[in-house]
Specification:
By secondary structure, the chain is an alpha/beta fold. It has two domains: about 25-70 and about 375-485, Alpha-Beta Complex (Aspartate Aminotransferase, domain 1); about 120-350, Aspartate Aminotransferase, domain 2 (3-Layer(aba) Sandwich), CATH 3.40.640. It has 18 helices and 14 strands. It has helices at about 25, 35-50, 75-85, 90, 95, 100-110, 130-140, 155-170, 185-195, 210-225, 245-260, 285-290, 325-335, 340-350, 360-390, 410-420, 425-435, 465-485, and strands at about 60, 150-155, 175-180, 195-200, 230-235, 265, 295-300, 315-320, 395, 405, 405-410, 440, 440-445, 455-460. The strands form four sheets. A seven-stranded mixed β-sheet has the order 2-8-7-6-5-3-4, sandwiched between helices. The chain has a three-stranded antiparallel β-sheet with strand order 10-14-13, covered by helices on one side. Helix 7 (about 130-140) runs parallel beside helix 14 and helix 16 (about 410-420) packs across helix 17. The radius of gyration is 25 Å and the shape is globular.
Length: about 475
């Protein structure tokens, strides 16, 4: 007796395509690592392969705040402690131990006493000793107690921002008020979460200042569109704009946000990068000063300041005025990815608790960090003055952070040429700058800007020795570009 066997026909094989991906993923844009950088990496590979046909022999990556990429040296004490913690045998070998100061050894021993190994998972909020160091840092800075249980150590401040936005964006139409210009982390993350970015404009003609009247206008416009504003992002000092907010301005924002039942996302990663007479003041301090109940999540990072340890991926989010059940949900979310990396946690602890006066490493630490800050201040002044000398370019004073964000006025002929290329005029300008000089900047379109205006962002991070050369290349390029497209 014969048996029939039913065979399942194999489906025709096909490749996965873009159409199979999330629409939100395809729509998200992140300008500081976008088209310009992809092209720059191609040039970098050509140079490494010995290509001599390019009009430059090196690249200057001024597209992102990545200090060590442009030659900044690490803080010695921080690297010593991390090296010892990762390889404890250095402390027990008399030959190698002699190369380290006693306070670095003592700090590494303290850290190792709080964990089983730097290679082990930690508590999802971060190892307690590091959270305690962060809590004490905030108390010294602002004069108010901080509960370490309200601190989450994260893989850079970016992860802390993403965590909060994931928790806040519940429905389509939920919105976050965000400064324009903005750092594209916010626009990209909101796009992924299908939230709405409600932009409020900083006033460029008045040093990129912020007013409550502008916030009120944009809030009302969002509500009229059927959106539901849930939070407001403040970047202080500003990125890409470099402004520093005054105490009274912060107080006005806190009061206004409390009245609107908004969560404040205080992006304060550049708090050490101050080059003006306006001091940094945290939102946490101001809220406590006026006894506000507004919920605030404050962000800080190991990537900025005078340390610039971007590769360590250290950061934190400090949650203030949130009920325990919200913090429990944040802890649950953090637990999904187990914990942030241990090197980044250590780096945040070290930044928040550096060598103190009287300790063996203090003099070197102070010389390195103070020297770096003074150098950044000189570079900020030099670059700002140079940009303001260019035809059709205006740059507001660089009060803080690591960037210049000049506005540039281009001719109708340049606009037409950009349109023919399918590019915005500032993108065409930045691409031409890269092609002819090897300098990598980011067009203002990537940060959003007032309609009808054009900008680009460049860093102040090339070394003092290299800055004059970068400025000279920018000068020559700009004049040739303006002459080429003159009406």
């Amino acid at each position: 007796m014969s048996q029939s066997v039913t065979k399942t026909e194999a489906l025709p094989r096909r490749q996965i395509t873009l159409d199979d991906l999330s629409d939100s993923v395809r729509a998200a844009q992140y300008a500081v690592r976008g088209e310009l950088v992809i092209k720059a990496e191609n040039y970098k590979n050509r140079l490494l392969a010995g290509d001599k046909s390019l009009p430059f022999d090196k690249l200057s990556f001024c597209n992102i705040g990545n200090p060590h990429e442009l030659g900044q040296k690490p803080v010695t004490f921080f690297r010593q402690v991390i090296a010892l913690a990762h390889y404890p045998d250095l402390m027990t070998n008399p030959i190698t131990a002699a190369a380290f100061p006693p306070d670095a050894i003592a700090r590494a021993q303290k850290y190792l006493g709080s964990m089983s190994s730097t290679g082990a998972y930690s508590h999802s909020k971060g190892i307690k000793v590091f959270r305690d160091e962060v809590a004490q840092f905030i108390k010294r800075r602002d004069g108010y107690e901080v509960d370490a249980e309200n601190l989450f150590l994260t893989n850079g401040a970016s992860s802390a921002v993403s965590l909060v936005l994931q928790m806040l964006i519940k429905n389509k139409g939920d919105a976050v008020l965000t400064p324009i210009p903005q750092y594209p982390l916010y626009s990209a993350t909101l796009q992924l979460l299908q939230g709405e970015l409600t932009g409020y404009y900083l006033d460029e003609s008045n040093g990129w200042t912020l007013t409550v009247n502008e916030l009120e206008t944009r809030y009302n416009e969002a509500v009229a569109k059927g959106h539901n504003p849930k939070a407001i992002t403040i970047i202080n000092p500003g990125n890409p704009t470099g402004q520093c907010l005054k105490y009274d301005t912060i107080k006005d924002i806190v009061k206004w946000s409390e009245g609107k039942n908004l969560v404040i996302l205080a992006d304060e990663v550049y708090q050490e990068n101050i080059y003006s007479t306006t001091p940094f003041v945290s939102f946490f301090k101001v809220a406590n000063d006026i006894k506000s109940t507004v919920p605030i999540v404050s962000f800080h990072s190991a990537s900025k300041g005078v340390v610039g340890e971007c590769g360590a991926r250290g950061g934190y989010g400090h949650w203030h005025n949130f009920p325990k059940e919200i913090l429990d949900e944040a802890y649950k979310m953090s637990s999904i990815s187990l914990c942030s990396n241990i090197t980044g946690q250590m780096m945040m602890g070290l930044i928040c608790n550096p060598p103190q006066e009287g300790e063996p490493s203090f003099a070197q630490y102070k010389a390195e960090t103070q020297g770096q800050l003074e150098s950044l201040q000189r570079r900020a002044k030099k670059l700002g003055e140079a940009l303001n000398k260019l035809e059709g370019v205006s740059c507001q004073p660089i009060e803080g952070a690591m960037y210049a964000f000049p506005t540039v006025t281009l001719s109708a002929k340049a606009h037409e040429a950009a349109k023919a290329m399918g590019k915005t005029p500032d993108t065409m300008y930045a691409l031409s700058l890269l092609d002819e000089t090897g300098i990598v900047c980011v067009p203002g379109a990537g940060f959003k800007q007032v309609p009808g205006t054009l900008h680009y962002r460049t860093t102040i991070l090339p070394s003092e020795e290299a800055m004059d050369g970068v400025i000279e290349k920018m000068n020559v390029f700009h004049q040739q570009f303006m002459d080429k497209y003159r009406d």
